[in-house]
């Protein structure tokens, strides 16, 4: 089957195990879709062209083997299965749930969306154990960097941990986009840095560019996180929907082009280019920070589920059950963003090995594609917001995003297990074979 031959960044050729159970309908539909994309779009995205072969996604990327495995189990490929027990926490739990994702508080009537458990094909994800999590991170620190979806996961984690410990807010600023929680009993710091483009960015001049345009300085990291990150043991980095706006690109302080800005005299560059450079600059920054010894996780892009319209044209997400794998259709732009970020992670990991720095993946993209039922839709309420648009981007809390942290716990546990066996088999200082 010729379509399964892919080229890895290393230049090696490989082929997904077609007989494997992991070759689900989902993947099959990717193959079909991406083959179609390959024919249609192969050469149409200059000057920067994504290697479309990467669109075969995680099942065929090195990431599934090198980065997504816990005890040889691919945690991110599996199925949602019903479970009787309710969620780990409620809107009454002592933790902060953003009103916009507090679906139960704002009257979401159905509860089935909180009653699914993720079952990887080859193993189990044990229930979240807050005490165990905190013991694994004792004396350590973890930072999220990203947009409101990073905050969504951070708030899920604080609520999941609430059964074991009550943190103090020791944020260094009053700006709620930069929270820092301290778990005194465990000497554990959990922080979030708001950085939607990861690199330095600002609103573009609307006298010149369309409203909502953003200027990105592609080779300048956003210091708002970079100046604080050196001491962190774990860094979870993500980016997504903010790259869909018109973007104006600077490099070495000079305008080099723009995306969707409708300026004939300015070189057109794709959003993928900006996305690629944002991750490259961020990973390079982490690689170059002298005192940084942490593990970096890329949390891959989170799918949205507008149906019967777009986010601003009346689209909604009214489902109350996950959708079937064979119903899932990713849009081409989404697959390209996904492939772009994973390719940058792989490149960073290659460089990180020389320095003993780990780059890993938290890859909920596929699993969340099934969870069209997990969004606030209209049951989220910003303070004073007059919300006419449905939210099919963020995730209700509690809800399926809690699974990201259940898996994070497994990843931390397996890392802990590996380091406690250190001395014989841990390949931390070996060069790439
Ligand atoms: C929790 O949600 C219920 C509605 O299901 C609401 O009546 C209650 O006030 C909420 N509690 C808090 C603390 O928000
Ligand atoms: C949770 O983890 C702690 C610490 O490892 C352990 O003592 C406890 O038994 C675990 N709880 C459950 C329900 O497994
Ligand atoms: C708490 O953890 C930090 C590192 O995160 C460490 O420098 C400090 O010594 C620890 N404090 C105690 C009391 O263990
Ligand atoms: C809320 O939105 C509706 C419909 O767009 C509009 O008619 C109304 O004036 C808005 N109210 C406020 C307080 O902004
Ligand atoms: C870590 O090691 C413990 C004890 O050997 C084992 O029970 C657990 O399954 C391991 N977990 C992971 C994720 O490797
Ligand atoms: C790799 O690590 C082991 C154990 O920490 C050490 O004995 C060995 O010398 C290291 N090898 C290299 C090439 O640094």
From TrEMBL:
<dbReference type="GO" id="GO:0016020">
    <property type="term" value="C:membrane"/>
</dbReference>
<keyword id="KW-0472">Membrane</keyword>
<comment type="similarity">
    <text>Belongs to the PC-esterase family. TBL subfamily.</text>
</comment>
<keyword id="KW-1133">Transmembrane helix</keyword>
<dbReference type="InterPro" id="IPR029962">
    <property type="entry name" value="TBL"/>
</dbReference>
<feature type="transmembrane region" description="Helical">
    <location>
        <begin position="23"/>
        <end position="43"/>
    </location>
</feature>
<dbReference type="InterPro" id="IPR026057">
    <property type="entry name" value="TBL_C"/>
</dbReference>
<keyword id="KW-0735">Signal-anchor</keyword>
<keyword id="KW-0812">Transmembrane</keyword>
<dbReference type="Pfam" id="PF13839">
    <property type="entry name" value="PC-Esterase"/>
</dbReference>
<dbReference type="GO" id="GO:0016413">
    <property type="term" value="F:O-acetyltransferase activity"/>
</dbReference>
<protein>
    <submittedName>
        <fullName>Protein trichome birefringence-like 19</fullName>
    </submittedName>
</protein>
<feature type="domain" description="Trichome birefringence-like C-terminal">
    <location>
        <begin position="125"/>
        <end position="410"/>
    </location>
</feature>
<dbReference type="Pfam" id="PF14416">
    <property type="entry name" value="PMR5N"/>
</dbReference>
<dbReference type="GO" id="GO:0005794">
    <property type="term" value="C:Golgi apparatus"/>
</dbReference>
<feature type="domain" description="Trichome birefringence-like N-terminal">
    <location>
        <begin position="72"/>
        <end position="124"/>
    </location>
</feature>
<dbReference type="InterPro" id="IPR025846">
    <property type="entry name" value="TBL_N"/>
</dbReference>
